[in-house]
Amino acid sequence: MSASARIPLPPFDPADPLGIDDLLDPEDLAIRDTVRTWAADRVLPHIADWYEKGELPGIRELARELGSLGALGMSLQGYGCAGASAVQYGLACLELEAADSGIRSLVSVQGSLAMYAIHRFGAEEQKQRWLPGMAAGEIIGCFGLTEPDHGSDPASMRTHAKKDGTDWVLSGRKMWITNGSVAGVAVVWAQTDDGIRGFVVPTDSPGFSAPEIKHKWSLRASVTSELVLDEVRLPADAVLPEAVGLKGPLSCLSHARYGIVWGAMGAARSSFEAAVDYARSREQFGRAIGGFQLTQAKIADMAVELHKGVLLAHHLGRRMDAGKLRPEQISFGKLNNAREAIEICRTARTILGANGISLEYPVMRHATNLESVLTYEGTSEMHQLVLGKALTGLDAFR
């Protein structure tokens, strides 16, 4: 008998059926558990009320707490950022979105869009001015790319910046901007005579306003705004010097999409766990519904897609840490995990029956949030085309 045959198998863990935790080191697990505990203490007791009311009260305090956890600009180096690995950042995104997509969006927009843009493309003076306060959560940032008439086609944006002497003058509108009305700084992308450029815009600049968008049925516990730039005058050094063309904002979106690959699985996990707990206790025809074959088939299928998605996220994270992650691979992850997460939520809802639509359970809240996650930062169709081009070598975008 071989030595390996004498080693007893570890018990099957329903919470980790593939043993993915074995791929994580103690620091990874400590970061995951810290974020999970914070979300359980600070978000879960209140999130149903916040969602029902369509508000995120105390967002500035939440941002400071997230800053103290090191969750803002988490994978960036220096300037008060935690310098965590991509996998550790992904684990944090998963735990935050298991609480609510709106909380993960707050962190993602702050760190992976606004802070990343300044860190990657900004001058040293810009980094020193903004990043330490943003990492601490003292300054909230937003990222202005999407416009009312231009979402998937940012190259056609109408927001423009013109030189006036040594100054820049920005005019235009941005739409669906997370954190917009509470931000102290906005990274805004605009057409110039030299192509698309990024600008660091203090939100107290004359001509800048950010009216909040109301009447949302998704991401209700999140601040979403329009940005209005009415001849906002900025000094010459407001431009991000290292970003020219669409490569700048698209690289920021790739960084943020990576967090979505993990985060979507957090929403899926929360819904899956709610369905399993319900199936164990809900009785019909004299026994728990979890004992019926059709319910077990649903639970098994949800578990397979959930943990395949987490494994995919982990693989992409290791590739990012090794400097090998391509944008097409991020599209692969975003397409699969957002699509499967929303399907898991819909299946979980069927197990809960009518109770599935109640805010007493997280399932419908996650499902409606994922309707936004499915289409923001690249719709499923756009990611299909990215992969289609990579697989065939033929461009179907135009």
Tag the structure with descriptive keywords.
398 residues, alpha+beta, Butyryl-Coa Dehydrogenase, subunit A, domain 1, Butyryl-CoA Dehydrogenase, subunit A, domain 2, Butyryl-CoA Dehydrogenase, subunit A, domain 3, four-stranded mixed sheet, four-stranded antiparallel sheet, 12 helices, globular
Q: What number is the mean pLDDT?
A: 94
Helix/strand order, N-terminal first:
HHHHHHHEEEEEEEEHEEHHHH
What's the domain count?
3
CATH topology of the largest domain: Butyryl-CoA Dehydrogenase, subunit A, domain 3
Helix content: 40-55%
Low-confidence stretches: none
Number of strands: 10
Protein model, in words:
By secondary structure, this protein is α+β, with helices and mostly antiparallel strands. It folds into three domains: 20-135, Butyryl-Coa Dehydrogenase, subunit A, domain 1; 141-245, Butyryl-CoA Dehydrogenase, subunit A, domain 2 (Beta Barrel); 248-392, Butyryl-CoA Dehydrogenase, subunit A, domain 3 (Up-down Bundle), CATH 1.20.140. The chain is 51% helix and 15% strand. It has twelve helices and ten strands. Strands 1-4-5-8 form a four-stranded mixed sheet. Strands 2-3-7-6 form a four-stranded antiparallel sheet, covered by helices on one side. Strands 9-10 form a two-stranded antiparallel ribbon. The termini are far apart. The mean pLDDT is 94.
Summarize this entry quickly.
The chain has 12 helices and 10 strands.
Task: Present the secondary structure layout.
Elements: H1 3-6, H2 26-42, H3 47-53, H4 59-69, H5 86-99, H6 101-121, H7 124-135, E1 141-144, E2 160-164, E3 167-178, E4 185-192, E5 195-202, E6 208-209, E7 224-234, E8 239-244, H8 247-281, E9 283-284, E10 287-288, H9 293-321, H10 327-352, H11 363-375, H12 380-392
Parallel strand pairs: 1-4
Antiparallel strand pairs: 2-3, 3-7, 4-5, 5-8, 6-7, 9-10
Helix pairs in contact: 2-5, 5-6, 5-8, 6-7, 6-8, 8-9, 8-10, 8-11, 9-10, 10-11, 10-12
Domain Acyl-CoA dehydrogenase/oxidase N-terminal: 26-138
Keywords: FAD, Flavoprotein, Oxidoreductase, Transit peptide
Family: Belongs to the acyl-CoA dehydrogenase family.
